Amino acid sequence: MHCPYCQHTDTRVIDSRVSEDGVMIRRRRVCEACGERFSTVESFELKLPVVIKSDSRREPFSAHKLRLSFDRALQKRPVSEEQVEAAVRHVISRVRQTGERELPSRQIGELVMAELRKVDQVGYVRFASVYRSFEDVADFREELDRLERDHRTAAEAQLSLLSDDADTPSRRKGGK
Asked: Are 82 and 121 in the same domain?
């Protein structure tokens, strides 16, 4: 491994850590020549499917393009780097799990939207507006209404779980 500061070829690993999901290893290194420290990230390389674009062109799957999509959608949003990385890794994992040699770009876009929806609703709407080619304000309103409906349904489901817990004998005042 070449030192990024002095280009010396002799660097030493001083610490290694496996990521939470076990997909990557982060290594702290020190250059034997200049003493500078830097980090490297290792991940396994698997053959990902070819992406079939809407105009029937085929191109190799690009994790870099995927990351750029997340970055654009989440620009200036309060989302941590770790959340973005986890979302990108999750999409790549889901793409791998298909086991397909070719995958329509539309399917990948749906995976991205599902992850964005979990991470940040504004980022989700930004991505959806471009991905689904919103034509006017009515398209935005429709998507926002759907998002709000789904959010309300999820909140009601959470509340029903809490109220079910409150009805159990161990939760009632007086016990027994």
From this structure: yes
CB burial of residue 105 (10 Å; 0-12, 13-18, 19+): middle
Q: Do residues 32 and 8 touch, judged by C-beta distance below 8 A? A: yes
pLDDT digits (tens, 9 = 90+) for 43-73: 777 788 999 998 999 999 999 999 999 999 9
Whether the CB-CB separation of 38 and 77 falls below 8 Å is answered with no
The pair of three-digit structure tokens given for residue 129, joined into one six-digit string: 């507006």
pLDDT at 175 over 70: no
18 DSSP β-pair partners: 25
Q: What's the domain count of the chain? A: 3
- Dihedral of CA 77/81/84/88: which sign? positive
Domain that holds residue 71: 60-132
Most distant pair of Cα atoms in the chain: their distance: 73
What length is written for the chain? Answer: 176
75 lies in the same domain as 14? no
Q: How many helices (H) and strands (E) does the chain have?
A: 5, 6
Summarised one tens digit per residue, pLDDT across range 116-127 is 999 998 998 889
Q: What is the pTM of this model?
A: 0.60
Asked, for residue 170, whether it belongs to a domain, the answer is: no
Question: Distance between CA 134 and CA 24 in Å, rounded?
Answer: 37
